[in-house]
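Throughout our pipeline, every protein is held as a single compact record rather than as scattered files. Nothing more is needed to write down the fold, since each code stands for a local backbone conformation. The record that follows is passed on verbatim for readers who wish to inspect the format.
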Amino acid sequence: MGLPNGVHHLALNTGDMKAQVAFFTDVLGAELKALYWMHGTNGFYHGFLKLNDLSYIAFVQGPDGARPAAAEPVPAAASMNHLAFSVGSERELVAMRDRIRNRGLVVVGPIDHGFCKSIYFGGPEGLRLEISTNEEGIDERAWIDPEVVEKVGIDAEELARYKAPAAYRDQAGQVPQPGLDPAKPHPMWRGEALNRVLKMSDEEVTRTMSEPTPPVKVAPRAEPAMAK
């Protein structure tokens, strides 16, 4: 007890909630589980996409000119809003609150959000941090608000697809690299560097760009002695 067991959700700011939901449901197969007015804010809404029942990618969007409860400016799209770690129970949540306070940090909560309970604190360089716990996954029937669905421009057919993305059949690495489409998202490389990478085969990328050698040479770990 006293340590997070993973990431509960990473919340990212967005200027286009529908585009993010469409991307993550189609490209990664994540299921839309919640879309609702964000608690304690002025006009912001929150979307949760399931990685598993205890881990999500989340998005935050608000109209131009809206302000969160703390009267902070509207954050830039594609920036991190907050990071929420996960613990296994409310008892562990309170234990983490004790640990954080023991380090001299202010921490608020638990706050019950319906599908999870959370505590809130801050990290270096202005990080917004949260620790959450939930014993079950999010029930999308209760947490997808029709008013917000309409607000972000999702129709009934799209909503059904976002809630239950089509199954994908593994093609054993045989899908060829598509042509570069300027209208679609790109990898981390840009300009000539990206063009150079895209001229390589997958095998050449792996062979020439991999850096598997660690910075410190160490002896192999000793095998534990067998009990007699």
